[in-house]
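One such given next:

>
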Amino acid sequence: MQTLYVIYDPHCGMCTEIKDWLVRQPTYVPLRLVPAGSEQAQALFPRTSADEIAVVSDQGDVWLGNRAWVIVLWALKRYRGWALRLASPGLQPFARQAYTAIAHNRMGISKLLGLKSEAELRGHLERVVIPPCQI
């Protein structure tokens, strides 16, 4: 496995923050972050949606939801240990519960924490009126 493609929801503030965090992490396997619904996503993975995180390997393996999060953690140098723990039989059911709780409430969490998607930030900034230079 040479590359993992992470398909995320670009309209979700929390997803965008996590994407930005992932870009800064050292990895064992490079992550390519692809916005769901984008031309790139449609070209690479025409059957994906923004309903839940999806990870696709360059070999065609697909992980969804909590399993996708575990494989993303597995790819990160600082978090592989967490991935192995969360994939263990004793914790995997709880990883699914934690993922489900967060994923189903991600828009509310984004709003609560003031996390804006790139589209929301762009929309806000487009409405800012720049005063003429007073020189």
